[in-house]
Design brief:
Blueprint: E1 2-10, H1 15-30, H2 34-54, E2 62-70, E3 73-80, H3 103-111, E4 114-119, E5 126-133
Antiparallel strand pairs: 1-2, 2-3, 3-5, 4-5
Helix pairs in contact: 1-2, 2-3
């Protein structure tokens, strides 16, 4: 079983719950465990909120969310057209939940199994992608076999 979708959203606060609801609806319909749905929806919310707040650029006032449910894993990627991260060679790592900046990145790192934070090659902008191994409800209609 494989599900893939991509959204091109305005850099507006109203876009964040839209992306979250689409992800939750997709995972719930497929039969993903509610705890995994919650973790991924919180991580997506944080990544989208960062794109809305920091992702403005001269070329676009939009950001992109792409989600893949493929087999036993979900991968989510949020890209924007902003300035990106200042030190792309060393992606930001946040060590404390009470840091003044970066709490969203910290949450994403805690909720996902694998996280990549960096810059888009060439054109600029940030990329936040994260994976999580899926658990399924017993009655899951689209469970990976």
């Amino acid at each position: 079983m494989s599900i893939w979708w991509s959204l091109h959203l305005r850099r507006d606060a109203a876009s964040v719950p839209l992306a979250r609801r689409l992800l939750l609806g997709t995972m719930e319909t497929a039969g993903v465990d509610p705890d995994v749905c919650y973790d991924l929806s919180v991580a997506l919310t944080e990544a989208c909120a960062n794109a809305v707040e920091h992702g403005g650029g001269t070329t676009s006032e939009a950001f992109r969310v792409t989600a893949y449910l493929d087999g036993e894993k979900c991968r989510i990627e949020v890209t924007d057209s902003g300035p990106g991260f200042a030190h792309a060679e060393r992606a930001p790592r946040v060590s404390a939940a009470d840091a003044e900046q970066g709490r969203g990145l910290f949450l994403i790192q805690q909720l996902a199994d694998h996280v990549h934070i960096g810059n888009k090659p060439g054109l600029g902008g940030a990329v936040v992608s994260f994976d999580k191994i899926l658990k399924w409800r017993e009655d899951a209609p689209l469970v990976a076999v």
